[in-house]
Design brief:
The chain is mainly alpha-helical. The chain has one domain: Leucine-rich Repeat Variant (Alpha Horseshoe), CATH 1.25.10. It is built from twelve helices and no strands. α7 (85-94) runs antiparallel to α8 (99-112) and α8 runs parallel beside α10.
Length: 189
């Protein structure tokens, strides 16, 4: 599959399909997550997102792939945090009105911060929370954006005074409270 993605690198549809297949085969399968990572899957996702930055159809799966490759896999979460966070931020900023990209970016955020509750990264200070907060704010009718965005914000804030302050300074508390008020029909928010 990774060889297929390498051959027609300029073909966004092929890259998109490769990302989707890779993500689906790895999601909830730790052995496949590790094998995909060792085979260069993380780099392939980042490269495809960079090469096809103007293709929103590829950016959505590109943002979603980190969660599929890292869910319940702490080693991959660390690798992804180092390699993919910047790409996810860029995609979320470029396509702030695209609910699919925003959902996928929030989905990645909730996973990449999941295992960091004891010692979360300084992602709020590094700008990762800004696109997530904006997504929650711009897509109030999308329950999944609301849920995954709030989970990512919560995970990032937990036990991390610097992140808590950064989120408060950027109106994060107000945004989360608004999401909670608007989505009373969806208890996971």
């Amino acid at each position: 599959m990774l060889q297929t993605m390498e051959l027609p690198a300029k073909d966004a549809q092929m890259q998109n399909s490769g990302i989707i297949i890779m993500a689906c085969s790895a999601h909830n399968y730790p052995a496949n997550q590790t094998a995909t990572s060792k085979a260069g899957g993380l780099n392939a996702v980042v490269e495809a997102m960079q090469l096809h930055i103007k293709d929103a159809n590829l950016q959505g799966p590109g943002c979603r792939a980190p969660r599929c490759l890292a869910f319940e896999n702490v080693a991959n979460q660390s690798a992804l945090a180092a390699r993919c966070v910047e790409r996810v931020i860029v995609a979320m900023e470029l396509y702030s009105n695209d609910a699919t990209v925003q959902h996928s970016g929030c989905f990645a955020s909730s996973c990449l911060t999941q295992k960091h509750c004891e010692n979360p990264p300084s992602s709020a200070a590094d700008g990762y929370m800004q696109p997530v907060l904006l997504a929650v704010q711009l897509h109030p009718s999308d329950a999944i954006v609301q849920q995954d965005g709030c989970v990512g914000i919560s995970n990032t804030a937990r036990n991390h005074a610097e992140n808590q302050s950064a989120i408060a300074r950027s109106e994060g508390i107000k945004i989360v409270l608004t999401a909670m008020r608007l989505r009373t029909d969806y208890p996971k928010v």
